[in-house]
Amino acid sequence: MHIDQAKLLSFNGLQRHASALQPETRMFIDGELCDAVSGKRFETVNPATSEVIASVPSADVDDVDRAVRSARRSFRSGAWSRLEPRCYAAHHA
Q1: Residue 30 to residues 14, 70, 81: CA-CA distances in angstroms?
Q2: What's phi and psi for 60, nearest 5 deg?
Q3: Would you kindly state where each structural domain of the chain is located, as residue ranges?
Q4: Residue 44: predicted pLDDT
């Protein structure tokens, strides 16, 4: 939904639309969305309500190693390490 479309919704309409959204809970490693190598997950809980917010991957050493290897490759390639700060910021805005 585009912001202009959202502005046209009533509060109840916006709530209905928001409740139907499903957040992405996979990890982003090496340019891909992925689950933990082990397949394990854990529930994230809202401490104010004890409501389960999401089930997310339970990363372990294999997942961390994969992420670190990917980050090192990216850094050594210069794709990010030589990027001007203003360009880097544009990707993270």
Answers
A1: 34, 5, 16
A2: -130, -165
A3: 24-91
A4: 94
